[in-house]
Amino acid sequence: MPGHLETLLAFDRQYQRDQQQSPVFLHRRDRRYALDSSEGQAPDISRWLAQLHAIGSHGADRYDFPEIRFWRRFSNGFIAAGALLGVITMSGLLFYDGGQQINVTVILGFVLLQLMLALYTAVQGLAGWQPWAPLIHSLQQRLQKQQPSPALSPLLGPMMTRTAQTAGLVFGATALITLLLSVVFQDLAFGWSTTLDTSAEAWHRVVSWVALPWSGWLPVASPSLDLVEDTRFFRLEGSGVDTASARWGAWWPFVAMTWLAWIILPRAILLAVATVDLRRKGRRALTRHPGYQALLWRMETPAVDTGADTRDSGKLPEDHHSATVTVPHSPLAVSWAGATADALLPGVDKPLPRAGGAQSLQADRDTLANLAHQITEGRRQLVVVTRSWEPPTAELADFLEDASEQLPGVTITLLPVATEPGQRPDEQKLGQWLRFAERVGQGVRVAAAETQEAAHGVQ
């Protein structure tokens, strides 16, 4: 799978589909997979999902999750806002009207604020707090017109933390770029000022502590005591010292390194922490999913068949009143959950359009809409190809009902295929499809490969 969030959502989607299957079928399917995998690598959820999706859907549709699309758009918008805000903020901090110098004290205060926000965001994610959850859920419902997946609810806090740290990192980067461009294209005059009775020696100790990470290998970015003494200014005119103009610009290496070391670097480290934490909690959410332990039990527990040797084990139950029909000639056709019947549908365009399986309901509706455009006077037969050994599902019944509504006047025929191409399924498997067609109604028939003329169709 391409990522841990996609794996969790794919597993939850498969779990919802499996609720419509019988426990016996699920046990046999998953136990068979575990036995096949035991010769190589240990059973793995990602490989299990990949195998099911390879059978049941197009590769392009495997990982199409509305939740992931929403978070990508949300994150991109948040990051773009952070980038724009970084440019605006640094431009505001460097604003100089000629009346007074750019106050380094204000810049240091802003750096401290950003560092506190970064740490608070990290703690919020690690603790699992979700103060933004109601707003995000409301926005997601408004954009997607559907309820968010409950599988992602435990991960909302870490996901928001990762997005916020990424936006903070981009904010710091664009602000630093704005500072460097301003240094090149403008004449910046820095200084320091405070209302408190602070001596130059005390302020020098403060900036020396801030510059401690790089003072040993980049002394030009560590202000000297002389620079601190020469660049203090006051708002009142005439109260400043007589300082050379070039001295006011000597602060910019310190400001740039302070921004890099105390805003950008902490954000990058905390972003890595948030990414690792999100992956850890994503794996934990998967193991705590209600279908996870049941899947492991089915993989580890042998499937035991009973009653295979009884006298009536191979007989068809006598609770249906219809027979199969021959495969229609040159029909419209659709593949349900990836079933194929090339040998039984000569002259029909391949590959068949798909429905069911891992496809969304909207994708099924689009398939029916495309089929509706292909209806002609001589093509009013729709064949739905299924696998005979898989039990009919309520999802298929809903699809047939939608097909009857969207394709009026079209006769719908189910075509259960056997494991061997072109062969007729055994009567026991066909029996479940005949009973299913009778329950569905809507004029649905069941077809099978025949060697002679078939019996009358289901009315």
TrEMBL record:
<feature type="transmembrane region" description="Helical">
    <location>
        <begin position="78"/>
        <end position="96"/>
    </location>
</feature>
<dbReference type="InterPro" id="IPR021296">
    <property type="entry name" value="DUF2868"/>
</dbReference>
<feature type="transmembrane region" description="Helical">
    <location>
        <begin position="102"/>
        <end position="123"/>
    </location>
</feature>
<dbReference type="Pfam" id="PF11067">
    <property type="entry name" value="DUF2868"/>
</dbReference>
<keyword id="KW-0812">Transmembrane</keyword>
<feature type="transmembrane region" description="Helical">
    <location>
        <begin position="166"/>
        <end position="185"/>
    </location>
</feature>
<feature type="transmembrane region" description="Helical">
    <location>
        <begin position="250"/>
        <end position="274"/>
    </location>
</feature>
<keyword id="KW-1133">Transmembrane helix</keyword>
<protein>
    <recommendedName>
        <fullName>DUF2868 domain-containing protein</fullName>
    </recommendedName>
</protein>
<keyword id="KW-0472">Membrane</keyword>
